[in-house]
């Protein structure tokens, strides 16, 4: 959500920044902009609007920027102000001598604005509706008063700024220097070399520069940075001390994958799930002694297995996978699991303390709600662990230990393959803890372990089925304004995830319910216009599930049912989507696939871009 990027080095900086903005596109596509200093002014090219990368690229191709060794840019996910040109970053101060790009929220921006106006007696002539423009004027105001360098003025200005942010500022008076600040966020500095000279990239994440350099440092919260062509200085804003962050090297290649035969990332990401699962399992399952190896949490695994309860915090799709982990971990390893939306966990009185384990699950590793919940748990004394996909992400840096998903970069805004990877890690962790704890009979363990190995084959089979009934289901859903997704047991989180997908991608209102919950209220809305998607593959609760479907049919709701091949349970429905039989514990891996495909194809039918659902961004870095 909002991406910032800066470059200093021998390459042509505007080109690097524009390339990086394309690569980080899914952080926000409500605005794109780039700024270059010509010495006496900033040349800025920017575009705002819904999904405006194309317009921005056209602008920069027609209106070329001067060549420079120093430039910075931004992609925007709107918080303050609608998506239009004037709200896109970079923003200038009133004098035009400072320029800023910013990710985050300045909570007291109106107080800052009022203070400037009251103290100077002059109204700010703001061009945008953003908190960012107020911030750059606040820095300019403090600098004018104090006559300090940009860095020192920023340090002083920040004392009165409330909120969480990462931003960089450049000044015409100090050419070749970026000064940046981070609070409640992280930033990265990529450290490279080109034609015998050092080069530096400042960015919200490593991906935009990972094809230029794999070496980087993470700038955590409460830091001030200054970057020039010769190096960078990192200072703690609380202690004033200069720090030397550890140089890191990317271990996983993040190089851009190509869309290949696919037109959309989402389609590609759905179809690469079999290979992705192989990658998730590789090196983590020892076929000789049928054990799971999770090196990232080795130090904590015995304590985890003996914990009286595990707390999981997450949002969205990651929350749905966390629910599945709860079902598996409790059933397989006998360890109680509390799953909560991170934002709720953070702001209520939670009973975690020394000795507690709090695990964050996040694809991006940047979700602000999840990050602050983990920080809070750490302050309360808990050990915090992370399950995330992005190396070098905020979560991966802040947690005591963790497990990378290894799903490869996900570019579609809606999570698909990373949900499946989260499930696979959840299942592996449950099996691993069960074995350490010794609670599962060896035979049952071996059966589950073997089924885990077969996942890529099952998934491949489902993805290769061209089920004609999917078309019928699409016809039924495309005209609906609302739909219910229902399931029981491990199919309940899948109902939640299926409903989330169609809501996000196809713009159809949908709710996921535990099937039994329908009769406690939602059933009142059922009629012939409200389709019900029932996850009704073979399970220990299939008879009860059938009763719930009948209740929906009695109210004339059309039913699309996912059923086990041959429909051995005689599930009543208007449309049956048959799926191969797998053990009930593993059915979520199979059942989610047609629901992802339905959402994707519905989005296309409705003329939407499934990769960039309106109003959403890939990582949500505000609370
Ligand atoms: C759904 C989706 C979102 C995210 C949620 C959490 O397709 O992508 O619901 O799952 O914003 O994001 P992460 O997993 O990055 O913490």
Notes on the protein architecture:
The protein is α/β, with parallel strands linked by helices. It has three domains: about 5-250, Aminohydrolase, N-terminal nucleophile (Ntn) domain (Glutamine Phosphoribosylpyrophosphate, subunit 1, domain 1); about 260-465, Rossmann fold (3-Layer(aba) Sandwich), CATH 3.40.50; about 470-605, 3-Layer(aba) Sandwich (Rossmann fold). Helix 9 packs parallel to helix 13, helix 13 packs antiparallel against helix 14 and helix 14 (about 440-465) packs parallel to helix 18. It is globular. The N and C termini lie close together (about 10 Å). Fructose -6-phosphate binds near residues 316, 317, 362 and 363.
CATH fold assignment of the largest domain:
Glutamine Phosphoribosylpyrophosphate, subunit 1, domain 1
Percent helix: 25-40%
| Rounded Rg | 26 Å
What is the number of beta strands? 27
Overall mean pLDDT: 93
| Name of the level-1 CATH class of the largest domain | Alpha Beta
Structural class: alpha/beta
Main β-sheet, in a few words?
A: 8 strands, antiparallel
Between the first and last Cα atoms, what is the distance in angstroms? 11 Å
Q: What proportion of the residues form beta strands (DSSP E)?
A: 15-25%
List the ions, cofactors and other small molecules found in this model: fructose -6-phosphate
How do the strands line up in the largest sheet?
3-2-4-1-10-9-11-15
Named at the architecture level, the CATH assignment of the largest domain is 4-Layer Sandwich
Structural shape: globular
